[in-house]
Amino acid sequence: MNLTPTTQKYILHWGEMGTRWGVNRTVAQIHALLFLSNRPLHAEEICDTLNLARSNVSTSLKELQSWGLIRVHHMLGDRRDHFLAHQDAWEIFRIIMEERKKRELDPTLTVLRECALEAAQDRELEAATRERMDEVLAFLEILMRAYDDFKHLPPATLQRFLKTGGKIARFLGTDDKEDI
């Protein structure tokens, strides 16, 4: 598969952004390639196109599958697995948000809730420290409730909400820095 200079730039940048988001560069680049591809690709094509080792591609494909960002597609007369990425940006965002919530935020909330229960019994813990712990827990719980409220909205409704939310934020202004 030949990549245009624009496609190369997109894939390279997606890999760079992936590293900033805590995702392996190769995983992100393969995801970008599959996202931009107009047909399913098999592992050897991915290796050749991105000049990557087969083992690295195999590991990265498994990671992308575990996230639910790509799926296997079988081609008639070809025994190799071919791979397709979700093509809808809103669906990709939803999948990534849900996986990050499961892998990062849910375990954090569990520990913070445990700490809140233990803090009530910890006589050596200063009140100010307990308050800061409670504030973080309350913040994450509000954030997760909001996420749960909005995650099932259809993309068109969510887009309207986000556009309206921006207008509301501008209307309300930024004078409430004390609330942050």
TrEMBL record:
Keyword DNA-binding included in the entry's annotation:
yes
User: Could you list the residue ranges that cross the membrane?
Assistant: none
Which keywords annotate this record? DNA-binding, Transcription, Transcription regulation
Output the Gene3D superfamilies linked to this UniProt entry. Answer: Winged helix-like DNA-binding domain superfamily/Winged helix DNA-binding domain
What residue stretch is flagged as signal peptide? Answer: none
Where does the source fall among the domains of life? Bacteria
Listed GO MF terms: DNA binding; DNA-binding transcription factor activity
Which SUPFAM superfamilies does the entry link to?
A: Winged helix' DNA-binding domain (SSF46785)
Q: Please report the stretch or stretches of sequence annotated as the HTH marR-type domain.
A: 22-80
**Has the keyword NADP been applied to this entry?**
no
Q: Which family does it belong to?
A: Belongs to the GbsR family.
State the protein's name: HTH-type transcriptional regulator
Q: Which organism is it from?
A: Chitinimonas arctica
